[in-house]
Structure formats: structure tokens, C-alpha cells
Amino acid sequence: MRVIDETGKQLGILNSQTALQMAQERNLDLIQVTKKVEPPVCKIMDYGKYQYLLQKKEKATKNKQVGEIKGIRLGFNISSHDMEVKAKLAEKFLKKGDKVRMELRLRGREKAFQNLAKEKMNQFLQMLEKSLSIRVERGLKKEARGLTIIISKQ
To answer: What integer pLDDT is reported at residue 62 of this predicted model?
Structure first.
């Protein structure tokens, strides 16, 4: 295995017993960094510090992911003015870089009027398209409690 010490200096290719002995002399751990290459790469360092560095890298990649999914819920009998207010809210979310999950809740007998519900959703999308260009991430989908669609800014 190829061994690297705690300062980053390569010690060369050693067998596992020698590498373990060197790590124990320094009161550190022998950590296999990668096994995809031949010979595998091992590093002499503190295992707790190694775990901390991995967690730090993971948090940094999570922070780089832009946008989260914001939800907007519409009712079946929503008025045109209320729909405009919701469209402005969705526009604000989209400009911030978030995705928007629009949900049109259907209750009881409203479930029988799916075609009217789809028209309401399309009407809402047209209101949004007047102010900014949008892209449909996940198309109109029928779920247990109504219809949903996920959109983002183009």
C-alpha cells in the first residue's frame, strides 16, 4: 500500500505491518483513503480529525446546492384575485432560485371535476409566465389529495 504521513509527505509503498507500526509509533491511525487505485492509498493521521474533515466537505457540498422546494397550495374554489396573490408569491420564490411545488387540493365531490382543476392549474401557470419564464420540472401529477406540479425559473 502507498503510505502518506500526517504532513502529506509520501513515505512510499510499504506492507501493512510496517505502515501500522509507523502509525502506532506516532500515536495516530492508519486510514485507507482510497482503494480504487493499485496499490491502495493509506494515510497516517488522527481518525477523529479525518471524520471531521469528511463532515466538513459534506456540509460544503450541501450548501452549494441552490434552492429548495417551496409549496403553494391552491383551493378548488380560489378567486382570481387570490390566485394573483399566490402567483406573486410563487414569482418571489422563483426569483430567489427556489423551486415551487404547486398543489391544488381536491376534497369530496371536487375530485369528480379533475378537468376543471387542470384548467385552474394552467390558468395559474399562465399568470406566472406573464411575469417570468418558467420551466416545468415535474408535470401535472394526480395524487391522493389533488393535483401537483413542480416548476422552476428558466
So the answer is: 73
CATH code (residue 15)? 3.10.20.80
Cβ within 8 Å of residue 121, ≥6 positions away:
74, 102, 104, 140, 147, 149
Under a CB-based contact definition with an 8 Å cutoff, are residues 101 and 148 in contact? yes
pLDDT tens-digit series, residues 131-146: 899 989 888 999 888 9
Q: Are residues 50 and 106 in the same domain?
A: no
Q: Which residues pair with 101 in a beta bridge?
A: 71, 150
- Residues 46 and 84 placed together within one structural domain of the fold: no
Both 23 and 94 in one domain: the answer is no
Strand, helix or coil at 137?
Answer: strand
User: Which residue range forms the structural domain that includes residue 82?
Assistant: 69-153
| Alpha helices per DSSP H over 9-113 | 16-25, 47-64, 80-96
Domain count within the chain: 2
* CB count in 10 Å sphere of residue 103: 17
Written as one letter, the residue type at 86 is: K
CB-based contacts of 25: which residues, under 8 Å, 6+ apart? none
